[in-house]
UniProtKB/TrEMBL annotation:
<feature type="signal peptide">
    <location>
        <begin position="1"/>
        <end position="22"/>
    </location>
</feature>
<dbReference type="InterPro" id="IPR050498">
    <property type="entry name" value="Ycf3"/>
</dbReference>
<keyword id="KW-0732">Signal</keyword>
<keyword id="KW-0802">TPR repeat</keyword>
<feature type="repeat" description="TPR">
    <location>
        <begin position="56"/>
        <end position="89"/>
    </location>
</feature>
<dbReference type="InterPro" id="IPR019734">
    <property type="entry name" value="TPR_rpt"/>
</dbReference>
<feature type="region of interest" description="Disordered">
    <location>
        <begin position="367"/>
        <end position="388"/>
    </location>
</feature>
<dbReference type="Pfam" id="PF13432">
    <property type="entry name" value="TPR_16"/>
</dbReference>
<feature type="repeat" description="TPR">
    <location>
        <begin position="22"/>
        <end position="55"/>
    </location>
</feature>
<keyword id="KW-0677">Repeat</keyword>
<feature type="repeat" description="TPR">
    <location>
        <begin position="152"/>
        <end position="184"/>
    </location>
</feature>
<dbReference type="Pfam" id="PF14559">
    <property type="entry name" value="TPR_19"/>
</dbReference>
<protein>
    <submittedName>
        <fullName>Tetratricopeptide repeat protein</fullName>
    </submittedName>
</protein>
<dbReference type="InterPro" id="IPR011990">
    <property type="entry name" value="TPR-like_helical_dom_sf"/>
</dbReference>
Length: 435
């Protein structure tokens, strides 16, 4: 599972000042500002903008003095005013932006520091301490965004922290706002790629949290599963062919269907259908994905479609006939379909592979002759020759069986007291790999 990491801290620029001016209140304010007397500086800058309300520089310094005192909303508003008044194409335009970015960077990096501390506390098992640090990070990001409302990094991390705090609705709203941001312009592709990782990564985290709460808090688990389902859907809206999101969303839909239970049969059926569709899409793109093939076998069985389940079980068996589990899976499905002879036969072969005693295949003739000259086991030897492998297996009832494997021919035969009781088929294994 891909894990979304915190987006990197941003560089903090130094504050930029402009040349000296004739407004005495502006000059006096700058002196107080340089010496860290921000309240006195604000008083002077306030007088400066009252005296020369069209002076963008005065509004910029008023905003800076207010930002230093934590009067963020006022500062952001006055930075806007300064930018509005700055003559286009003049150095003041860049100066206002650089100074505003300075305050944004300070707050953003402070949020990053709180987030890292929260992760450390969480790793140490201090959930309360981690929550407090996440809350502090949230407050810093809220402040940072007042200085730069369109910053995609800050808004993305805001959504991630909401998820860390369990505020899922707020997180999803934040991510939606980020994706639909009309200011993205040429960076929309970059934003979408970032959001794809965020949605997928946070979907993974929500899914993991749901599994963690599965036993202790079923209601909470369902909440996180629903969030994961939504997050993966948002990732797929950006890239419908993102295999990880397709496969994980299918797994979440399946898990959520189990959590819904039988009290809402329609919703359960809908979720199971979503899971199946997701897995089928993945298998189209990755035909060799054995995990998905197995999930489709199990999922179709859970949905009552035993024929489709059997198809996938046979595919798994053909891909790896030496795997005992594959034989057992086919056997169980056949039993559910009331095909008892074939079902028990496949189970027998699977049990022989997993726990049977390996016999010397070169002694196949002598083993068969023990049951008499007319035994079916001896007939098999005469017809097919020496098998590639022989397994001897005893069941709980005392029955003794031999299973002969002809790997290169794609056949397995089970015998009891010389009588052939089962014949199974699978894809041939090339002779070079039979040993």
């Amino acid at each position: 599972m891909r894990i979304t990491r915190w987006l990197a801290a941003v560089a903090v620029g130094t504050l930029v000042f402009v040349a000296a001016c004739s407004n005495p209140h502006l000059s006096g304010g700058k002196l107080h500002y340089d010496q860290g007397r921000y309240d006195r500086a604000e008083e002077n800058f306030q007088l400066a903008v009252e005296e020369t309300p069209e002076n963008g520089e005065a509004w910029m310094f008023l905003a800076m003095s207010q930002a230093e005192q934590g009067k963020t909303e006022l500062a952001a508003k006055n930075f806007d005013k300064a930018a509005e008044l700055a003559p286009p194409g003049t150095p003041l335009v860049d100066t206002i932006k650089q100074n505003r970015d300075h305050f944004f960077s300070n707050r953003f990096n402070s949020a990053m520091a709180f987030s890292e501390e929260a992760e450390e506390l969480k790793g140490a098992g201090d959930e309360d301490g981690a929550k407090a640090k996440y809350e502090s990070a949230l407050a810093e990001l809220d402040t940072a965004l007042l200085f730069n409302p369109q910053n995609t990094q800050a808004r993305s991390n805001l959504g991630i922290i909401y998820l860390k705090l369990g505020r899922i609705d707020d997180a999803l709203a934040t991510f939606d706002e980020l994706r639909q941001n009309p200011e993205a312009g040429e960076s929309s592709d970059r934003v979408n790629q970032m959001l794809l990782q965020v949605y997928s990564g946070q979907g993974n985290e929500s899914f993991s949290k749901a599994i963690e709460l599965r036993e202790s808090d079923p209601v909470g688990a369902r909440k996180y599963l629903a969030a994961a389902l939504d997050l993966y859907a948002k990732a797929l809206a950006i890239d419908p062919n993102d295999i990880e999101s397709l496969q994980n969303r299918a797994a979440v839909a399946w898990e959520l269907a189990d959590n819904v239970g039988d009290e809402d049969a329609a919703r359960k059926a809908e979720l199971l259908a979503e899971a199946r569709g997701g897995y089928e899409s993945v298998l189209e793109m990755e035909p060799e994905n054995l995990e998905v093939r197995k999930n489709l076998m199990l999922l179709n069985s859970a949905m009552g479609d035993q024929e489709t389940s059997l198809k996938f079980a046979h595919e798994l068996l053909n891909l790896d006939p030496k795997n005992s589990t594959n034989w057992v899976q086919v056997g169980r499905i056949l039993l559910q379909m009331d095909q008892k002879t074939a079902g028990f036969g496949h189970l027998l072969v699977g049990q022989a592979l997993s726990g049977g005693e390996m016999l010397n295949a070169a002694e196949a003739r002598s083993l068969a002759e023990k049951h008499g000259p007319r035994s079916q086991e001896l007939d098999r030897y005469r017809e097919s020759g020496e098998p590639g492998e022989i397994r001897k297996f005893s069941d709980a009832g005392g029955g003794i069986y031999e299973v002969w494997f002809y790997w290169a021919r794609g056949h397995a035969y089970a015998f009891q007291s010389g009588k052939e009781i089962f014949a199974g088929e699978f894809e041939k294994i090339a002779p070079a790999t039979t040993e």
